Amino acid sequence: MSGALIDFRIELNLWIALSILIYALSVNLAWRWRRPRTGRLASWIVKAEGRPLAGWLLQLLRFAYYVGLPFCLLLNGDAVEQALRRLLGFDIPLSFLMRGVLLPRAMGLSGLTTPEWLTGVGIGTALGLGAFFLIASGWWYYTRSVRKLSWGQTDSPAPGASVGEPIVMASPPPATVWWVILWEAIYAEMHWAFYRAGPIILLDDYYAGVFLGFLLLNLEWWTDPAWRHGWDPKGQRPDVVLRWGLAFVMAIIFLFTRNLWLAIPLHWAIEMGCRHLLKAPG
Fold it and tell me: CA-CA distance, 208 to 172, in Å (whole number)?
């Protein structure tokens, strides 16, 4: 990073800006393609969506976006090149791809001692339980007493999953199995930690960085027509509001624990509990 043309902190935040642009492009394309239309393009899209290869390609793109991008920014290409040179005997240029500008400590992947880990588990569990009861009670009251709105009942046209659109937001939440929720929790927490890490590293301030990262996430979501439509009173989607609430409470939990490994299971447990409670009859 010493020979870089720009400071690594600036480069990292430029990568975050690029990530937001990729998200905005993908969700807007998904929104347009899934609206009723006729013609050759529409028939081609329908045929492409029906092929198994399209589904696998979409999942590969989502993995590259949510996990691959932060992972490449975590790795130092020079160090990887040297290791591969010793192993293989020839060079593989990776510096252009593996930038090494993202610090594991800012992501919550390292830097904690055993006592800090144990303290974080206690604090995270307590905050997670509080967040679960807060979200669940608020949404139970809203869906059962105010709107009588079930998970699958919405006027919002489902846009389906794009590179930036979670699978759980493209299918009825009650039918979503536990491992899909876990998979999406990993994607979400990696993505949210990535957006927090940029401001944290730039400002060297966890408090400001966590909340600026949350604002960046809201900016990204605002570019999604399906997300904006989900807040409309006529087509409000409980999964949209739940996801926003989860992002907020997980930001608070990360602020106190600074542990991504802990955030993932807590996210999964809170979301599973809320979805199970809110789909229950009565």
Answer: 35
